[in-house]
L-aspartate oxidase
Amino acid sequence: MGSGVAGLSAAIEASKHCSVLVVTKDKIDENNTVYAQGGIAVVLSAGDTIVKHIKDTLDAGQGLCDKAAVKTVVSEGPKRVHELIEWGAAFDKEDDRLIFTQEGGHSFPRIIRAQGDSTGREVEHALIRLVKEYKNITVLEHTFATDLITRDGICHGAIVWHAKKGTTLIWAKRTILATGGCGQVYRETTNPDVATGDGLAMAYRAGAVLQDMEFVQFHPTTLYIAGAVRFLITETVRGEGGILRNKRGERFMPRYHQQAELAPRDVVSQSILKEMQKTDHTNVYIDVRHIPRERLYTRFPKIKEICDSFGIDIAKDLIPVRPSAHYMIGGIKTDQFSRTTVRQLYACGEAACTGMHGANRLGSNSLLEGLVTGYTAGKDACESIQKSVRKLVPYTIRESMGLSKISWLDLNDIRNSLKSLMWRDAGIERDERHLLEAEEMIEMWGSYVMDKEFSNPTGWELQNMILVSSLIVSSALKRKESRGVHHRTDYPETDNIRWKKHITWVL
Ligand SMILES: Cc1cc2nc3c(=O)[nH]c(=O)nc-3n(C[C@H](O)[C@H](O)[C@H](O)COP(=O)(O)OP(=O)(O)OC[C@H]3O[C@@H](n4cnc5c(N)ncnc54)[C@H](O)[C@@H]3O)c2cc1C
């Protein structure tokens, strides 16, 4: 399930010996992957080493990374990226050599990119081209997975819905969740509409273990113009010399961190929030006016195009930005083979909690994680089918769960209220009072939404968003310390004695 970098990588690998059905709820190329800008972190340049990339990733993760998972992703990464290049992904080059950029937290220039700032689109379309060539991969677009089919702790497929074809049961020998993140539970987010955490909710309902749900990464700089989509202004803009200024035009980052604009993402997000509060303003600004116009336009063509459409010339004007929810570090707990705790069910990419990111994701590490864990999931799923003697035997399932019918509910109103609540009470800065308030509100909304039987994705997504939000809030309440992207103003210190551990949830 899912057609981003993780889902398509899994499909391609599994299709070597198995027939694969890819179910995706929108068109094939509508997902977080397509919007990825900055690049992929990978050890391919002379002088860089796997050891350095592992160390940078572990440092960012602040004690909660799974070292074996980090080692697997980082050391498999170069092979997977080479493969992607063979499949036609064109990364930016100078004199026939890949260009490498350095991003905050990386000790070496190891970020490759495509068309300046459209890396995800290039990766996605290279994978789609291959998927379309393979006869034993079928793609069902605009098909919404509502739930997994499980019996006795074993997954046998999923229930899916299509506007014209209705509900279908899909029986599968192995099921892979590559359904991405859940940025949509926040009012401010870089994620597209599809990122409502459906896979996390489905896995939880099926009895899988979820882990680290309090660790939601906020991206410090998204374009902030009321009414406009929250378009990301990639980290590399700061890497190229972009300066953050407050409403008064003052550069503020050197006051907060020695690395100034290149400080870790969580530090930049928190600093921006403080400046917004101090200056009583809705946003801060990125200033790139000192960078030569030609360089700006060729390096950031997509950002130029979007800003132009709002009358902002990046070579002359300040770019208004503020933080927004960006990446779910937690998710469905998986092992080194991308297996979840439910038999025959796999998870990969952003939906999974592989242990790669710990408490803070290093920029550009997630496309790499999607490529590698997607590959691993596809490979293990396929190999285990070949080894197994078990036949796929469909069985009868109850048609109705016996839930009550829909009453007069304004689903959009509840969705918007939930997103505002999450932003206000479970966002960049958290404390017990606000988290308890969020818990109470979510419980109240849940009491009249969760027992309803809906007939289309609007209701199912809302149920999933309520479930995922409640897990984020409960985990954030539980973790009484600040670590990585989780910042509690009432517990500002990192507490390695009591909290150097994971928080897990299982139904
Ligand atoms: C604006 C932006 C910029 C980014 N920049 C970078 C970057 O430069 N480098 C980097 O490494 N990472 C970046 N990231 C993060 C990275 O893009 C994602 O973490 C990664 O692409 C996730 O891939 P995925 O395959 O796991 O999920 P996705 O690409 O999000 O795919 C999820 C898929 O699941 C499908 N799906 C979801 N629910 C259902 C359902 N119920 N039924 C059926 N299908 C469903 C969706 O339709 C979608 O196809 C960025 C993210 C964003 C949003």
In short: The domain at 222-323 is CATH 3.90.700.10 (Flavocytochrome C3; Chain A, domain 1). The CA atoms of residues 246 and 380 lie 50 Å apart. The first strand starts at residue 20 and ends at 23.
